Amino acid sequence: MRESFAKGGWDGFRHYVRQADVNPLWAGILDEDEKEKWIARLMKQAESGNFWLFLIKTDPGFDPLRGDPRFQDLVKKFNPPS
Fold first, then answer.
1. pLDDT digit string (tens) for 36-77?
2. Which of 4, 8, 11, 36 could staple 16 via S-S, CB 3.0–4.6 A?
3. Rounded CA gap, 81 and 68, in Å?
């Protein structure tokens, strides 16, 4: 990732992230189609019981998805007890 940014700046970095299909830690650069893809992926992970989904509540990489009601439902589902 670092090399992609060093060689191509933000455009190179965005291209790398899209090609590598990495976790949406950098979801802020995703377009609407990619947001749909990540919502669908997260919903599939929720159906399979992915334990790590509790991280979506606080991981800032998911901020661009927070306005989606489906994402909010996932956050509620994986909200650990207080």
1. 888 898 899 888 888 888 888 887 778 888 899 999 999 888
2. 4
3. 23
